[in-house]
Amino acid sequence: MSILAIRLYPDPVLRVRSREVTRFDAEFDKLVADMIETMHAAPGVGLAAPQVGAESRVAVVDVSVGKEKQELHVLVNPELVETSGAEIDLEGCLSLPGITDKVERPTRIQVRALDRQGKPFELAAEGFLARAVCHEIDHLNGILFTDHLRGLRKERMKRQLKRLASGASGAPAELAEVRS
After folding, report:
1. Does this model's pTM top 0.85?
2. Under CATH, what is the fold of the domain 12-175?
């Protein structure tokens, strides 16, 4: 296993809709293992394949940041099948270091996906886990959390993203509650 380089905004791979995974071979298994190691080393609570330059529909989520083995979720070709409720909370992203803002997400979700070996499963999640999963699915669709902002928040974010793209950064990344 190895730690992969996390792609930073404005890398174009972050805006590409990822391709469905159809091969569950040793190469794919290594990508997943490397993504898990990279996410935990960052540290982050989620990581999508585009964030490490792979255009595959796979994401890893671990809201315990490696402390609870049962909290690790590998989601291959994930699809939101149900959402309910809504809450606004602070988010950040490993690909947007130092940038955070409040984003509205569902409080409860149901996701259909494949596991690391290609077997189908469903995941019911709520609260922080639901937020992290939605954030990662967005990445697989070429969407950043900043795309959910509106009005003055969106205008402020445009300035922050411009600074990030030019090499300057915003607030410390430690402020992010969801860094993925």
Report:
1. yes
2. Peptide Deformylase (3.90.45)
